[in-house]
Design brief:
192 residues; alpha/beta; Rossmann fold; 5 strands; 41% helix; globular; NADPH-dependent FMN reductase; Flavoprotein-like_sf
Length: 192
């Protein structure tokens, strides 16, 4: 069954390796028949958070926020692609996510983390897990860490390392399972 999973990239740096990981996830999700639009903060140009989307009068939010809100409302879940900056979450990712709240409720998220080193960004992923839960989009139990991302993926997001396919498949199976289960429960109503 086709699902909608925005892939939210967390970096805006020039030459960012996260774009490799985001493209890889978009490609992997689309190969399974899912819709996976890339949410790129470098292209969106969102302002630093002064007020959330819901705090704008109806029809007065900046156009990128309106577009992103519509995408999140129809999404079945969220894939978040995060680097690790100073053992934490990149500021562009936090800013992109923090503009919304209700649009995420009762939908699962999945964390893809990466780094140029061997840890694969997992320290940031632990903080991101807490943040996503607070936003109402709890993360699935599995992570997809990609260590040495520049050696694991090419610039177009194609795998250069065969080991990556197996954990990616299990990760996406788990995400789809949670997304379908929560979608079915949302159809019957939510606790509040």
């Amino acid at each position: 069954m086709s699902l909608v999973f925005p892939v939210v990239l967390g970096s805006v740096r020039p030459g960012r390796n996260g774009l490799r990981a985001a493209r890889y996830l978009v490609r992997a999700l689309e190969s399974r028949g899912h819709e996976a639009p890339l949410v790129d903060p470098a292209e969106l140009g969102l302002p630093l958070l002064e007020r959330m989307y819901k705090e704008y009068p109806a029809g007065e939010a900046p156009e990128p926020l309106e577009r992103l809100a519509a995408l999140h409302r129809r999404a079945d879940g969220l894939v978040v692609v995060s680097a690790e900056y100073n053992h934490s979450i990149p500021p562009a990712l936090s800013n992109t996510l923090d503009h919304f709240l209700e649009e995420y409720f009762w939908k699962p998220s999945a964390i893809v983390c990466y780094s140029a080193g061997r840890y694969g960004g997992v320290r940031a992923a632990m903080q991101l897990r807490a943040m996503l839960g607070e936003l109402g989009t709890p993360s699935i139990p599995s992570l997809l860490p990609i260590p040495e991302v520049h050696k694991a993926l090419d610039e177009e997001g194609r795998a250069l390392q065969p080991w990556l396919e197996r954990p990616t498949g299990r990760f996406l199976d788990e995400l789809a399972w949670y997304a379908e289960a929560l979608r079915d429960k949302r159809r019957g109503g939510v606790p509040y």
